[in-house]
Design a protein that fits this description.
globular, homodimer, 6-stranded parallel β-sheet, about 40% helix, about 20% strand
Chain lengths: ~280, ~280
């Protein structure tokens, strides 16, 4: 496995391999878990060369404390990637991707103002910026993202469609712990009791889905989810919404095109999860 | 010369030529003149393949009347490009580059709020959007732009730098009529008397430059330019500014890094011009 910290040698290496080789890109912020590895596996199945990037992107953190506390485990990450058969790692310093303070920002109309965007102003602009950089540096055939960040995937889909990036996007399913908790690098920050409480996100989502399938009204289901959260100490629901998977507009009726999305604090750690009505 | 209206066949054609061939891109809105042809010549000198695009980009017109009246001369343009030795033309319909109403917009901090940006809100976001599309479709080695749209060049430079587009940019000098009028597709819209008056832009810029070289104060020079415009019927100065060529911030002293920039109406036609202190 080749590890690069600088852009030029990475580009030179990739230029030598391509155009014969298809390139799969798996962008990550490190602190890898099996969710990331499932993206690597998908990329390896479909491409001659798999490139993973490890970069905690300051531009997408609206909360400086969250940026500071974001887990960083580069050596362990590289070992996991090596074992998973990833061929190339790009792990740049902040100053390599951001030579100056960035001045370009993106606006996605409604899509970056709702759900996560409402609580994390500037987050998706920062995502779009770093993803644009990585796409231009690696020039992948296909880029792989996890469904856990569903809204992020919709943002990147929009970016690729409207800027006409020459690549494919693939979204891979959420990987969960036995109790349903979606794998996330932020789970590492949970204490043992918090870790147990964190299963509430997926439990609420599955309960809500069952109730909706039975025909319960959206308003009542939201109320039940709210009550679930209120009954547990040390957790706080930030939002629970039903949206259309196409453009994430609020769902007023439930169909197989509906997604349930949730963000909640467990202690001081902010977690997100989602569930498709169709799954 | 190959002419494409659709993205897929253009990409297939270019993919067959590259990676052996370097590609020069000359993006235009058509209504070509010798300014454009000088970009084609530069591209031909430096690349195996020259691609010109002809597309009147709705997203960069803040004024619908200006968009409607923008000259469209596709057949004549193609003939000029053929004679200039351009090998590939991409002239898509609006719906080919914009399948839906665009939702992504760009913000460049101060750079798109001053000078042209102050009078044409949204203009540079539209420029950045279409240029991103064209860069991704053509994937050029080098893209060529004219100095007449100096601020546009700075915007695109920022876009390429911050999104890390894998290409070079080149700015080519302004081509002028014998009386100094900068070549522009919009000149076609001037009546004969207006055409004569339009020389005022360059005349004012050269006079201002001379006065500044002699040590005249910026404030006084601006006043003289203002008076020049007031003494001619049917012309109206929109702005005359001195800026730093690096980031277009207002110049408070004159150096060889200063540029004089001007926008003015001649009749109903809005023209721009600029002059480097160093030229």
């Amino acid at each position: 496995m080749e590890i690069f910290k600088e852009i030029k040698p990475l580009k030179a290496f990739l230029k030598e391999k391509t155009p014969a080789a298809t390139i799969g890109l798996v962008p990550t912020m490190g602190a890898l878990h099996h969710g990331h590895l499932s993206l690597i596996e998908a990329s390896k199945r479909e491409n001659a060369l798999t490139v993973s990037t490890i970069f905690v992107n300051p531009a997408q953190f609206n909360n400086p404390e969250d940026l500071k506390k974001y887990p960083r485990t580069l050596e362990r990450d590289c070992e996991m990637l090596r074992q998973a058969g990833c061929q190339v790692v790009f792990a740049p310093e902040v100053t390599t991707l951001y030579e100056h303070e960035p001045t370009v920002t993106f606006d996605f109309g409604t899509l970056d103002k709702i759900l996560e965007g409402k609580f994390r102003p500037g987050h998706f602009s920062g995502v779009a910026l770093v993803v644009s950089k990585l796409f231009h540096i690696v020039n992948p055939t296909t880029a792989y993202f996890g469904q856990k960040d569903f809204q992020q995937f919709k943002i990147i889909e929009k970016l690729v469609e409207e800027l006409k990036f020459d690549l494919q996007l693939k979204m891979m399913p959420i990987i969960r712990e036995p109790d349903g908790l979606a794998l996330s690098s932020r789970n590492k920050r949970l204490s043992e009791p918090e870790r147990k409480k964190a299963a509430l996100l997926f439990r609420s989502l599955t309960e809500a889905k069952k109730l909706l399938i039975r025909g319960e009204k959206i308003f009542n289901v939201k109320e039940i989810v709210n009550q679930n959260y209120k009954s547990v100490d040390g957790v706080k629901l930030e939002y629970f919404e039903l949206a259309n998977i196409e453009n994430l507009s609020p769902a007023e009726t439930v169909t197989n095109q509906t997604i349930l999305l949730m963000a909640a604090y467990v202690g001081e750690v902010r977690l997100i999860d989602n569930l498709l009505m169709e799954e």
